[in-house]
């Protein structure tokens, strides 16, 4: 019953103490509140309270420093940490020091009540045995948006576990940063971090790259080759662009995940796979599964904990913080220190950022290197973004989205006609122009198999056949 449960609150902000006390009291809990860490420590020492809700920054002591001491004398005591700092490091430290949950300020009262209810209903989290040797105050992930806070909390929980993780997101969102954070702050941080990009390795060499090979296993194998699984022993193996892995390698990887061991190419002796796997992709793997291009059983083996990185356009409130962070990194690499005017920051927030954080970082380095003024204004930012958005030769940009590419081509098409109205039935013409390459590529990806192509496109098979006839697209049969 909640009437018998006592919540201890520690926060130096009187308004927060009042709001939390009233909300928890209305929910049926007994509440004691204090503004100091020393008073909280005395209550915990005396055996009071069933759960602690504590701030990080208090006048006499940091709540994160107090957390391990509380867990040592009261390992069954559940602790919820809240902080206005809202950084990745804060979330990780809270998890590694035994907190049940971390809540960034400001938070929703309903969310807090839900966390309290869950904390009192579940077994306590004991202090991790390897607390010493924590990473320093580096910030591999930057942002205070709601989306990023949820990612911080997920990654923080995973630092005390050894689960396989699947990171998805557009190019430039920072998928490898997530993988490195999981490694650098996790149980395997003393081991190696090894990354391999599936899209950058020739198909015929992927198995050798992953699992190694014996001398003479194939033409050109003059010596034994050590694969990435062996290189990453005791650490983390990051499989980037996993959606580009060929079918044969998918089968071998699935076997490794199932059995926990592998054999080198040309070898017979099994080798224990002592790695944590973090996979990443920008592709929709479920669509690839429907098209028969990715194994469903492998997907579920890799997708134990999914993490989706939002594109920058979905977290525009993080752009000023990221921009300052990248300017500081530029200064650390030897470029002049720069700052941005408020108008420049607002202009950055209005940009669509098809290249995401990578595009923003490149822009910041360019501004730091090319502009003499210490404070960069809106005009300079607008000029650089205009150059990126509208290339003079009409050529596509590597980071351009499909929508932007279509719009760019339509602008060129319209500009070729003085009155701006080139033809009638423009809508139908544009749709057919987009459908042609889409259907051609879908059939190419599925080797002419119309059933798989229809599944990939999300169309009925008969609908696909009609579209192929209407667009007069030839179909090469029997390729699958």
From TrEMBL:
Its main location: cytoplasm. The keyword Transcription regulation applies. Keywords: Activator, ATP-binding, Cytoplasm, DNA-binding, Nitrogen fixation, Nucleotide-binding, Phosphoprotein, Repressor, Transcription, Transcription regulation, Two-component regulatory system. The modification 4-aspartylphosphate is found at residue 55. InterPro entries: AAA+_ATPase, AAA_lid_NorR, CheY-like_superfamily, Homeodomain-like_sf, HTH_Fis, P-loop_NTPase, Sig_transdc_resp-reg_receiver, Sigma_54_int. It is found in: Cytoplasm. Residues 141-369 form the Sigma-54 factor interaction domain. Residues 6-120 form the Response regulatory domain. PROSITE patterns: RESPONSE_REGULATORY, SIGMA54_INTERACT_1, SIGMA54_INTERACT_2, SIGMA54_INTERACT_4. Coiled coil: none annotated. Member of the two-component regulatory system NtrB/NtrC, which controls expression of the nitrogen-regulated (ntr) genes in response to nitrogen limitation. Phosphorylated NtrC binds directly to DNA and stimulates the formation of open promoter-sigma54-RNA polymerase complexes. This is DNA-binding transcriptional regulator NtrC. It comes from Sediminicoccus rosea. The gene is ntrC.
């Amino acid at each position: 019953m909640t009437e018998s449960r006592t919540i201890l609150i520690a926060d130096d902000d009187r308004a927060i103490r009042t709001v939390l006390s009233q909300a928890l009291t209305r929910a049926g809990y007994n509440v004691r509140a204090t503004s100091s860490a020393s008073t909280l420590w005395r209550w915990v020492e005396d055996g009071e309270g069933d759960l602690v809700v504590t701030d990080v920054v208090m006048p006499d002591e940091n709540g994160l420093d107090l957390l391990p001491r509380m867990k040592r004398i009261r390992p069954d005591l559940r602790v919820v940490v809240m902080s206005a700092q809202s950084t990745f490091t804060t979330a990780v430290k809270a998890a590694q020091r035994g907190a049940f949950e971390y809540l960034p300020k400001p938070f929703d009262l309903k969310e807090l009540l839900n966390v309290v209810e869950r904390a009192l209903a579940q077994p306590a989290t004991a202090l991790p045995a390897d607390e010493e040797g924590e990473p320093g105050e580096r910030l591999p992930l930057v942002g205070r948006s709601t989306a990023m806070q949820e990612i911080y909390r997920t990654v923080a929980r995973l630092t005390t576990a050894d689960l396989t993780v699947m990171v998805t997101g557009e190019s430039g969102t920072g998928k490898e940063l997530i993988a490195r954070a999981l490694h650098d702050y996790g149980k395997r941080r003393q081991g190696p971090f090894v990354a391999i990009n599936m899209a950058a390795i020739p198909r015929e060499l992927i198995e050798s790259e992953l699992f190694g090979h014996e001398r003479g296993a194939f033409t050109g194998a003059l010596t034994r080759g050590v694969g990435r699984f062996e290189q990453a022993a005791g650490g983390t193996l990051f499989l980037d662009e996993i959606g580009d892995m060929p079918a044969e390698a998918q089968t071998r990887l699935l076997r490794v995940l199932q059995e926990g061991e592998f054999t080198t190419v040309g070898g017979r002796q099994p080798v224990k796979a002592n790695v944590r796997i973090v996979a990443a992709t920008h592709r929709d793997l479920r669509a690839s599964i429907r098209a028969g291009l990715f194994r469903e059983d492998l997907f579920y083996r890799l997708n134990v904990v999914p993490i989706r990185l939002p594109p920058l356009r979905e977290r525009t409130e993080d752009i000023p913080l990221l921009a300052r962070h990248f300017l500081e990194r530029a200064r650390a690499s030897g470029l002049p220190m720069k700052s941005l005017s408020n108008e420049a920051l607002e202009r950055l927030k209005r940009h669509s950022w098809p290249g995401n954080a990578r595009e923003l970082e490149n822009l910041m380095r360019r501004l730091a290197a090319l502009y003499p003024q210490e404070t960069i204004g809106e005009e300079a930012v607008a000029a650089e973004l205009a150059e990126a958005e509208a290339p003079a030769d009409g050529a596509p940009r590597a980071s351009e989205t499909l929508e932007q590419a279509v719009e760019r081509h339509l602008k060129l098409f319209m500009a070729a006609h003085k009155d701006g109205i080139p033809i009638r039935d423009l809508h139908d013409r544009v749709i057919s122009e987009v459908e042609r390459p889409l259907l051609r590529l879908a059939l190419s990806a599925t080797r002419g198999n119309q059933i798989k192509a229809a599944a990939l496109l999300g169309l009925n098979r008969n609908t696909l056949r009609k579209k192929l006839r209407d667009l007069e697209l030839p179909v090469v049969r029997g390729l699958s």
